[in-house]
Design goal:
Layout: H1 2-12, H2 15-28, H3 32-47, E1 51-59, E2 65-74, H4 84-92, E3 103-106, E4 117-124, E5 130-138, H5 141-167, H6 177-186, H7 193-218, H8 225-257, E6 263-264, H9 265-279, E7 286-291, E8 297-298, H10 302-320, E9 330-338, E10 345-354, H11 357-365, H12 382-391, E11 396-401, E12 405-413
Helix pairs in contact: 2-3, 2-5, 3-5, 5-12, 7-8, 8-10, 9-10
Length: about 425
């Protein structure tokens, strides 16, 4: 028992790294199953649990929960399930019948597994509907405390991520307007770089096709000087555009694979703005003002910095695009500041939005973090989860307003100079 308690304490001391690595896993996962497996393994590592199990169902067009959308398990106690009846039967074998309510049951001793307790938690989506079940078997109260206090944010992120895999297959015109507005209000969907990759690749193919077509035209012996010059100009432009797009894809790939402890501020913000501009469903213009050194390093891995900046922009844009208002661009500012009582430097990020009372009200709700993701309350929006995780590493967030604009402000610690 003492060894297990010590294991949990050691893991709890690395919560910052665990959360950052979990974000990396979710960004890198290509499908819902990989996302579920990576988070379950992360939770097992953080808590020292014996076995864990998760299943997430999504909702069809009629609003009814579908068959099992994805599931995963770790350890020796849970089987792999493929459908809803198997889920219900598996959990009922442990005595958990009412899947809308939390449940716990001490298990009989089995061979080397003694003092094991089963815990079951319902998972709710951002509209308050039961969307899945999370179960875990532990032998220490410290393990379950770690899960409830620290791992709940990872489960919230996972549900958002799995929902994204489904919603990417559905276009907004097929989604009821009230649900679209609810999603915009409750939170934003985890940004997927796959759309950015595919759109960029499609554009690259188009530019290469232009260059190829122009090259064929130039082989015509009867071509005029005017057509020749125009063709050469188009080929040169297509090659230049292809180079820019390839560089953008290389940058995005680097963000996903970089596991260093620090990242370049300008690089991360620029990539976040690029993906934001590409992926917004309804165009929301944005202007970036960088008043920092090009080599300012912040104390956050690159993939997490991208995730943070992108989601702050997506959070603002998801509200702004649905509320009628002035057609004015979102202004993004980055400035380096120094605390007067210490030598610690911070990067201040501000997002300025034209004032609208409805936007202000919704923006303020995006900072309200639910006390627990295991309750019957709707899942906390992704903005609140973002702020909750970042507050663990000394990030400072807030919303303020004037008569003309709403300002979302964040202070991010810069990396120590010896990094």
């Amino acid at each position: 028992m003492n060894n297990e308690l010590e294991l949990v304490k050691i893991n709890a001391g690395n919560l910052r790294d665990h959360h950052f690595e979990a974000i990396h896993d979710l960004l890198s996962s290509g499908n819902a199953n990989l996302a579920c497996v990576s988070i379950l393994r992360r939770i097992a590592d953080m808590s020292g649990s014996t076995s864990s199990f998760i299943t997430i169902s999504l909702f069809n067009e009629a609003g009814n929960d579908s068959n099992v959308f994805t599931s995963a398990s770790t350890g020796p106690f849970f089987p792999v399930v493929q459908n809803k009846p198997d889920v219900v039967e598996t959990l009922a074998n442990f005595g958990w019948v009412n899947l809308h309510q939390n449940y716990s049951q001490k298990l009989p001793n089995v061979e080397a597994f003694t003092n094991q307790t089963f815990y079951g938690y319902p998972l709710f989506d951002q509209l308050g509907r039961l969307s899945g079940s999370f179960a875990v078997i532990v032998s220490s109260p410290v393990s379950i405390q770690t899960i409830e206090e620290e791992c709940s944010m990872l489960l919230g992120l996972l549900v958002h991520r799995v929902q994204e895999f489904q919603l990417l297959k559905r276009t907004l015109p097929q989604t009821p307007l009230n649900e679209v507005l609810q999603i915009a209000k409750r939170g934003v969907i985890f940004p997927s770089l796959s759309d950015m990759y595919s759109q960029s690749a499609h554009t690259i193919n188009g530019q290469l096709a232009v260059a190829s077509l122009q090259s064929q035209i130039l082989t015509n012996p009867d071509i005029t000087d005017e057509t020749l010059n125009l063709g050469l100009t188009r080929i040169s432009s297509a090659i230049a555009q292809t180079g820019l797009l390839l560089h953008r894809q290389e940058n995005a790939f680097t963000l996903l694979t970089d596991q260093s402890k620090v990242s370049d501020l300008s690089y991360s913000v620029q990539m976040a703005k690029t993906s934001f501009d590409i992926l917004m469903t309804n165009k929301v213009p944005s202007v970036l003002h960088m008043d920092v050194s090009k080599h300012t390093m912040i104390d956050v891995p690159g993939n997490v910095a991208y995730w943070m900046f992108h989601n702050v922009l997506r959070m603002v844009g998801s509200i702004y695009q649905w509320i009628p208002g002035p057609e004015k661009a979102i202004e993004i500012y980055a400035t380096t500041v120094t605390e007067s009582l210490s030598s610690q430097t911070y990067t201040e990020i501000r997002v300025h939005v034209p004032f609208n009372s409805a936007i202000l009200e919704i923006s303020q709700t995006l900072f309200n973090l639910n006390a627990s993701y295991f309750s019957g309350e709707p899942l906390a929006n992704l903005g609140a989860i973002l702020f909750g995780i970042m507050s663990m590493v000394n990030f400072k967030w807030g919303v303020e307003s004037t008569e003309k604009e709403i300002i979302i402000r964040a202070e991010i610690p810069n990396a120590p100079s010896n990094e």
